[in-house]
Structures
1.
Amino acid sequence: MILEMKVPSPGESITEVEIAAWLVEDGDYVEKDQAIAEVDSDKATLELPAEESGTITLKAEEGDAVAVGAVVCLIDTDAEKPEGGASASEPKKEEASKPEETVSSSPKENKTYATGTASPAAKKILAEKNIDSDSISGSGKDGRITKEDAVNATPSMGTPTGGNRGSSRSKMSMLRRKVAERLVEAKNTTAMLTTFNEVDMSPIFAIRNEYKETFKEKHGVGLGFMSFFTLAVVRALKMYPAVNSMIDGKDMISYDFCDISIAVSGPKGLMVPVIRNAENLSFRGVESEVKRLALRARDGQITVDEMTGGTFTISNGGVFGSMLSTPIINPPQSGILGMHNIVERPVAIDGKVEIRPIMYVALSYDHRIIDGKESVGFLVAVKEALENPVEHLMNNDIKKALEL
C-alpha cells in the first residue's frame, strides 16, 4: 500500500510551510513516528513524523514552499525492513579520481631576476605602508621598484591584502523572513518610543543567595531573575492597564489577564513562547513554565499555539552581555520590557557612594495608546517591585511566597 503523507496544518491562519531539511534520504526505510523532516512555518520550526513504517519516496526538495495539505512524500507500507535495520538504499561509493594534470598554453612573460625587486629604500617605504612589493610595477631598469615607485604607491581603501575575501549566500528560513517582516511592520506602523530606568538588584541578589539552593531542592527549578521580572510586570500591568492593551482598527482592546511573552533564542532564531495567565502563577510556577518553554524552544518542539497571543513581552538581552538596547514591540502588543546585563556601578546611597549591582531596563511602547505618564509610571512600578520585592511581590513573607 502506498501512503500519501500530506503537510498537516501547524496552526490557524498558516497556509503553507517550507521544507527546511529532510532527515532521511529518498528510498530509506523509515519507522512509524520517526522524524523525517523539519518544516518551517512563519511562526515555528516543527518536525514531521512518519505516519507509517515503510520505504519513503520524497516529493519535495529542501527549500520548497509547500501548501498545507499537499503531498510531500510517499511511504510504501508493504516494503520489508532491511536486515540489520540498514537503510533501504545505500549511497554509492564513488571512486576517487586523480586530478588531471593541466599544462598552461599561455606564453611566458619576459622577466629577469630583477623584475619586481625593490631597492633597499623602496623596501623600507613599502614596509612602512604595509604594501606588498608584488602589487607594484617597477619603473626602473629590468622592472626594478625604485624609491619613487614606493613613494607614489598608495593603496585605495579596501585594497585586497591577501586575506580571505570570500562570501556565501543562503536562503533565509520562512521563520526568519516572517520575523523580519514583523520587525519592519512594528517600526513602520507603531508610534514606538522607549523610556529607560535603572534597577538596584541588591535585594534580589540577597534573596537568591539565601534561598536559591533550598528553592531548587524543593521545586526542581532554579530561582532566576525571570520570576521576579514577570511578577513585577504583572503588578505594573494591573496598575497601568493601557500597557496591557492593543489596537484593533479604531478600537482599543484591554485585557484583564496577563499572557507574558518571553523572548528566547532557539536553534532557528528568536522565538517568543507565552506564559499564560501569569497573574495566577507563583515564583515556582513562573520558573517552571520558563524552563519548560525554553527547553521546548531549544529542542525545536515548541508549537505554534505556545507562541500565539501574548499581551506583553519581556526580552532578556542581558544573557548575551547587552548593556542597553531599545527593544522592538512584538505586534499587535503595545509594550515590551528589555532586561540587560547586571554590572557593579557606583551609586549614591544616603549621601554616600556605594557599589551596587545595577541593571538598566528599557520599556518600548506604542505611543498611540500609551501616554508618557503611563509608560514612565509603569517602568517606575517595575523598578519599585524589583528593589523592594519582599513588600511588593512577596507580601512580606519570603518563605511563603517561595513555597518553602
2.
Amino acid sequence: MREKDEIRAYVEEQAHEEVVHLEKVASELVGPMRHDIWDVHCVESRWWVVTNPTNLYDQADFKSRDVVLTFHIGLMLRTQYNQEGEVPVAPEVADLLPGSWRRWQQAFEAYDSGDEAETFQSVGVRLRECLVSFVGETRNDDLVPESTVAPKASDFKGWADLLANRLAAGESAARLRSYLKKLAVETWEYVNWLTHAKNAIRMDAEIGLKAVEHLLGTFTAARLRLARTPQRCESCGSYSVVAGVCRHCEWADPSYVPPEQHEWSEEERGRRLAEPCTPSSDISTFISPTDF
C-alpha cells in the first residue's frame, strides 16, 4: 500500500493529474538493478512508471511495457555519462572529487597527444598530480587518531591509509579496508614508476590511467557505501524494504513517514501546463529481449 502511495504521489506531482488507478504489471532484474513497471491511469492520461531511478512515460508514446523498459534502461545509461571529452563517470560521482577527475582528464589528454616515451611519462606526472589532488579533496584532521601526527599534506599513501580506516571501519569491513589500502599503495607506486620510465610505451600509460580511474571510483564507491546503507527488514533481514514495508514478510517500519503530496493551486497548475514541451517520438516497433 505504501509503495502505491509513493508511485501515486510521484505521478500526481509530475503529471499534474489525479491518479484514478495504478497497478504493478511487471518487475524485471536487469544486471544488478531491479526495475518495477507500473500501469498508472489518470483522469485524462495513462502512464508507465519505471523505477530505479523512477521516471514516467506517456503510454501514447510507449504502447508496450517491454519497449518502455528498454528505453528507460538506455536513457538511464546515457544520463550516467557526460558529453564526449569529459570525465566518463556519472556526474553525481564526479562531483565528489571534481579536482581529481579534472586532473585525470588532463592526464588522458596528455595520453592522446603523442606517441613518444616522454608523452607517456607526462601522463604519469599528471596522474601523480591527480592522486595528490585526491588527498587534498579527502584529507581531514578528523581522520587522524588522537596522539598521532598527521601525514604531510601531499603524503598520498599516508592519507589514503587513514581514509580507508574511516570508510571501511570495523571487523565486517576488514576485507574492503585491506583492499583500499593495497590499491592505494600499488597505484601510487605504479604511477611513480611511469613518471620515470624512459622506455614507457602507450600501453603503460593506458594501464596507469585505468589504475587511477579505478582507485577514484573504488574510494568513491566506499564513501557512498558508508553514506547509503540500505534499510533491512527487522523481521527477516531482507533489503527489499519499499516505502517502509518488507516485500517478503510484510514487516512495516513504524518510523516510516510517507512523502508529502503537493497540492497545486489552479493558478500554478495552469502556469505549468502552459509551459512549452517537446513531445517524445512515437515508437511503433516492439522488440523484447526474447525476440533475439
3.
Amino acid sequence: MKLILLGPPGAGKGTQAKMLTERYRIPQISTGDILRAAVKEGTPMGVKAKGYMDAGGLVPDEVVVGIVRERLQQSDCQNGFILDGFPRTVAQADALNSTLADLDKNLDAVISLEVDPEALVERLTGRRTCRDCGRGFHVTFDPPAVAGKCDACQGELIQRDDDKEETIRKRLEVYRAQTEPLVAYYRSAGLLSAIDGMQDIQVVKNKILAVLAAK
C-alpha cells in the first residue's frame, strides 16, 4: 500500500499514520525525520541539505525530493509506504510523480483529513507538555488531575511555542496557500479521498481502512 496523508497541522495525520504502519507493516515517511536522518548518516543528499541548513537557508525542493527518493529505495518500502508531510506543494507533487515512475511505483491513494480551522486552533492551543518527562495533555480533551501539573511526575506543564495561537494561525495560512492546491491536484488524478478528521480517532481510522480496502 502506497499512500499520502494530507491535512493541516493538528489534523491527526501522525496519529493515523502510526496506526496504518502497524496494520500494513509499512513505514511512515515524515520529511522532517528523513531529512534529519539523511544529514546524520551523511548520504549524498543529506550532505547537500546540511549545506543549506548550516547557512540558515531553506532546503530546496530538488534536495528534499532527492532525500525522499533515497528513502523510498530502502528495503522496508518494498511493500509500500505512507508519506506524511510530503509533498507540500504542486511542484513537489510533480517531482514525486517523476520519482515514483523512475522507481516503477504507483500511488494507491491520497487521504485528505478535512478539519475546521477554528476547531484546529482550539485543539492545538490547548496542548500542554510536561517540562520534565515530556508527557502530553490537553486542557479540554485530556486534562491533568491537577491543573498545571503532570500526572506522571508532577512536573510543570508548559505550552510549546509552536502551540501558541499566533504561530498556529500562521502555519494554517501557509498550509492553505501551499498545500491545499494538492487536494485539487490529486482529486483530478482520481486518487483523493476526503475524510472528516474531526470525528473520533477510531472512526477516522475505520473510514481510511474502508477507502484502502477498495483499492
